[in-house]
Design brief:
484 residues; five-stranded antiparallel beta sheet; 19 strands
Length: 484
């Protein structure tokens, strides 16, 4: 009966496509050649279809309407692979907001102001994309700067089952072989040819829309209705929604993703004065380049790469962001640039970047500069204790070791340091870590102070926290994974 209707029943299928946007997005992808990633444009044998490919999806995340769905570059026939809808791929760091930081904030396991030590993880081979090690870093900056180490540490804290549960809510597929921090923190999927897993631009576009829609996921809709020759409605697509995050979690994540967009190469996604939030994703060997993000009205995802997963050159992780920005500029024509309003039950509190706690004067006097900033918290999760990481001690200026009663007075100076449980010499903040050795200069015999003297000499009690005001001042290797 269905075949009869399709053959001669006069069926009309009403899609949600914006034809002008669809055509424009196709043009943008067609013009994004292999030269974008410093490769020569080549074609699939016997066709006019480029080997360097791309895909994109644009969604109205409030209604679920899919406004544009581009399955490939160049000549595409009826039986061509639809890379936007049906070709699952590893998604790199695009997973971080969905399966690590969003769930962790939602479950109140962390806050955006909590800190984590960006330092090597024993027995785990994972590095940041730029091979730098910052040391103490806030959760906000760990995501905004796409720190792989901080993400892995956070993901290991919340656990695989929680990450997977949230990932599946967004439509991400996991094979039995895709597990652990590699998949859940870094977006590296097993993705075997006979057992594909990961996500598509169609999946990620709707997933990132959650951050703009108050934590509510709207099922994407390719069509609105189907009628017969007489105009009778045979099928009608209802809008289906489900809550994944609270309004507060969604807003805080949206704000962090604006930092992620503004403070990296993904600034290429910006257009006009429209607020933009989003995240890049680069997989092992730069075989996939992603950008997924949103505005106050629409969400979209763009993928660039090769079907055979040919590696691309370094330095081009922003290529997908530029394509995203061009497409979304067209999609957003005539739309308001007013930003998403902050929901109730969020508080903004000044905190220390090194402890995540309320600041003292010492936090503002850090030798690196003021370490205080203002952060958003779900009401009830904001810190109540004061920073104990910053301390003021007396040291020997000649060797930066802790001063003793025998240290020559002209060499004694007061400095501010940070305390760390397990400082690592490889981190950028190591030089600011509280020294543990006492002065041992030849001309000054060492007499270690008593416990009482050490306490009086080494810890400054100035600046009663009660008198403080709250004024305040944004890919990696994992078992040979090169993700961002």
């Amino acid at each position: 009966e269905v075949n009869k209707l399709l053959a001669n029943g006069g069926l009309k299928i009403y899609t949600n496509m914006d034809r002008d946007l669809q055509d424009y997005a196709q043009k943008v992808l067609d013009e994004t050649t292999a030269a974008t990633v410093r490769k020569q444009e080549t074609y699939i044998a016997g066709t006019k279809t480029p080997e360097f490919q791309g895909a994109a999806t644009v969604v109205d995340y409030k209604t679920g309407e899919v406004l544009a769905l581009i399955g490939g570059r160049g000549e595409q026939g009826a039986n061509s692979l639809n890379r936007a809808y049906s070709d699952l791929k590893s998604i790199g760091s695009s997973t971080k907001p969905l399966t690590v930081y969003g769930p962790a904030i939602e479950e109140k396991l962390i806050t955006a102001g909590d800190t984590i030590d960006d330092a090597p993880i024993p027995s785990i081979d994972v590095n940041n994309v730029d091979n730098s090690l910052v040391g103490n870093i806030t959760i906000r900056d760990a995501l905004a700067q796409s720190k792989n180490i901080g993400t892995v540490k956070t993901q290991m804290k919340i656990g695989d089952s929680l990450s997977k549960r949230y990932g599946e809510k967004f439509g991400i597929t996991y094979s039995k072989a895709s597990k652990g921090y590699s998949a859940f923190a870094l977006g590296e999927f097993h993705n075997a040819s006979d057992d594909r897993d990961g996500a598509t631009p169609y999946i990620l576009a709707s997933a990132f829309g959650v951050f703009g829609n108050g934590g509510v996921y709207t099922e994407p809709k390719l069509y609105s209705k189907v009628t017969d020759a007489s105009g009778n409605i045979l099928l009608e697509k209802e809008t289906e929604t489900k809550r994944i995050f609270s309004e507060q979690t969604a807003y805080i994540m949206y704000d962090i993703l604006k930092d992620a967009q503004a403070n990296s190469a993904t600034n290429a996604a910006k257009f006009s004065t429209m607020p933009v939030a989003g995240k890049t994703g680069t997989t092992t060997g730069r075989k996939d380049l992603w950008f997924s993000g949103l505005t106050p009205h629409l969400s979209a995802s763009v993928w660039l790469g090769y079907d055979n997963r040919t590696p691309m050159n370094d330095g081009y992780s922003s290529a997908s962001a530029r394509v995203w920005g061009k497409i979304m500029a067209k999609a957003s024509e005539g739309m308001s640039t007013k930003d998403i309003p902050m929901p109730d039950n969020i508080v903004k509190v000044a905190v220390c970047k090194d402890s995540g706690h309320l600041p003292t004067d010492l936090c503002r006097q850090d030798p690196r500069g003021n370490r205080v900033y203002e952060e958003y918290f779900i009401k009830g999760t904001e810190p109540t204790g004061y920073c104990e990481n910053h301390v003021k001690v007396k040291v020997n200026s000649a060797n930066n070791k802790l001063a003793t009663p025998n240290t020559p007075s002209h060499l004694v100076v007061e400095k501010i340091f940070i305390k760390k449980a397990s400082p690592n010499p490889a981190t950028n903040d190591y030089q600011y870590v509280l020294p543990t050795e006492y002065n041992d200069t030849i001309d000054s015999p060492v007499t270690p102070p008593s416990d009482t003297e050490e306490e009086n000499e080494n810890v400054d009690g100035d600046g009663d926290p009660s008198e403080e005001d709250n004024n305040s001042e944004g890919t990696g290797d994992s078992t040979n994974n090169q993700t961002e």
